[in-house]
Amino acid sequence: MKRTRTLIPLSQDHHHGLLLAALIKKDAPPYKTLPQTTEGKLEYTLKAWENELSIHFKNEEEILFPVVKGKDEEIDGLINGILEEHKEIEKLIVLLKTSENKIDTLDNLGNLLERHIRKEERILFQKIQEIFTEKELENLVGKISRVKK
Description:
Elements (H helix, E strand, L loop, with lengths): L7 H17 L13 H31 L4 H26 L3 H30 L2 H4 L12
Helix pairs in contact: 1-2, 1-4, 2-3, 2-4, 3-4
């Protein structure tokens, strides 16, 4: 299904999130211009959190979710689960700074982040587009901007 223009900026952010997830998993293949050492991946992840992911989460939590929540039981359930995943991702980000085993923490974060993004793209966004018309989502246009260009 073609993504509605309201959700396009979030989907574009998800592309970058999936690249990060792939980069930080154990035994990830090297990517041309991305870090390959554990320390490099750690630094890259923390910068991505600060400059991209945390802002993306805020766009979802403060702009998108309040508009779509309360109109469909399935969407509400998905959002509740996604909010829990946001908290779990944040905990792993904090743990990265103190963890003795940064490789495992990065791997756990990468796997969770990938599952989380796939759920949003394949299930939540699809359901939003089935339930809401373009006109109903129109007031969100311009309020959600792409985090990484």
